[in-house]
Amino acid sequence: xxxKLKNQKGFxxxxxxxxxxxxxxxxxxxxxxxxxYVEKSRSTEAQTAISTLRKVYDVQLQTTGTTxxxxxxxxxxxARLGExxxxxxxxxxxxxxxxxxxATSTADFPGGEGKQVWYDVKxxxxxxxxxxxxxxxxxxxxxxx
Length: 145
What we know:
Blueprint: H1 2-5, H2 13-64, H3 72-79, H4 83-88, E1 89-94, E2 100-105, E3 116-120, E4 125-128, E5 133-135, E6 142-144
Antiparallel strand pairs: 1-2, 2-3, 3-4, 5-6
């Protein structure tokens, strides 16, 4: 009976089925991990840009004693962020002196529009997309880690 199930190359259909099931299980485990890795990697662009903006604001604060009247546009110009970064992210700075720096992804961002990465000055910590929130591929939304 087993000889009837063998194909021309010598593998039984059961052996082939077992290999296919193992590959499917490995893919089911690997894909979500890979997607988190990609999101974490993509968020580093925003984190780097925010760090640069923080330094520009820090210099302004140390030089003049205030950030009053220092616009986000001036800070972006002095930060000299790359064209791709400016295309992918829109920046917002809140407070005087700044208490929060926010980067929101644009339609040009490969991960989609509306993703946010922010730096909380009081906590001295980054939050958001690819850091402590992840896209849930099944629902299309985000979940907190």
